[in-house]
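Sanity check

After download, print the first record. It should look like this:
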Amino acid sequence: MMCVLLFVGTNYSTYFNTASLVTCIQNFPKSRGPTVGILKAFSGLTSAILTQIYAVMHTPDHATLIFMVAVGPALVAIGLMFVIRPVGGHEQARPSDNNYFMFIYSICLLLASYLVGVVLVQDFVQLSDRVVVLLTVILFILLVSPIVIPVTFILSPKPEHPVEEALLSETLITEANTLQDKEDQPKVILSEVEEKPEDIDSLPASDSRKRIAELQAKLVQAAARGKPHQWENFTLMQALVNTDFWLIWLSLLLGAGSGLAVIDNLGQMSQAVGFKDAHIFVSLTSIWNFLGRVGGGYLSEIIVREHTYPRHIALTIAQTLMAAGLFLFAMAWPGTMYIGTFLVGLGYGAHWAIVPAAVSELFGVKHFGAMYNFLTIANPTGSLIFSGLIVSNIYDYEAEKQAHRHQISALLSPQLLHNRSLLADGPLKCEGPPCFFVSSLTMSVFCIMGAGLSLIVVHRTKRVYAQFYQSINT
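Expected structure tokens:
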């Protein structure tokens, strides 16, 4: 029964992710990084929010929490299912969109800062029920504050000046026609078939046209074989035979899998180094995960928009930060649980803002839902490999070693032997830095490998990004 419940609950979340991401990427095709970052950020912050709500309920009955989690999202879906829809992003763009994105970013940062403060205060100070309720009310106000944006549109029948709207419409129509013309012609830039030769620009005009015609003929032949080009709409099966897609998937597996293994084992990791209560690290990781998704989307958008460089350079930075955080976990120096949690949570969250945006760019949005959900297989696969096989086995091995030493020591003390016998049927526990030393170092190395794969993706796609975003910016 638990297996069935987990299956239904997990796919319930998958439908939310797919519907939200696909719809919003279609509605904001020129702001994929911020859009994905904001959506995935609030998704990553839910555990801290639900923890605060549960604290207000103040009940020891876990069934109440499960009922709240089951009913709440369903009511949201029912209330919004007739409202949220694709509206044609290239036809709805406004010059003020950037300001509204910055407003939502500000709310994100304010919300994360507020939750960090609330978590720390509740951890060190015993608050009264009235104060907890007040803190939760403020939390709800911050959560619903982005509704100011659609209310502004409703109250302002003409959000843009008429002249600006006419110019904007004319520009967008021209741009749409240009994009359509480009879609009707074979693309010259391809990472899988052939790149544009560096000497083609130095050829005379007639020779250059002939060379381009030859390249286009080759690309037409490749298309006839069912192999689309970068920036076109791949099907899932076409993406599965693309080298770049698998490099992205393996990089995601190594980075996100390591981060998820840390999240899965935060309780044991914190207890092993002397913390009695692990809930503060769970909440803080959720908040850092949130900031990583917001920051990853924002940083990657700056990289592709202002520098016309591949989005995966931001993922390389995130995986390097995770490697540093895992190294700190292995060293177990004083205070490293807080710093390591910050770095790993930040890097893990960045994966889920950068990778979906990059895949939608490189492989198109028409079948993005199928490709995104295939990419998410990296999460449970990474959890199985890193958490189920590496971390758990090493933890059990160290726990057995410690139990064996305790048994030998207990032979010298009958009283100690009696106390140990009372706990003989309980689960083995490991204490001290050795519990996660080897596993943390191993995952740190895997994160460095993931960063290397991301750099390979950067090298393979930098010409495509440069060509595409230079044409957009000009």
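If your output differs, re-run the checksum step. Summary of this record's structure: The CA atoms of residues 326 and 440 lie 5 Å apart.
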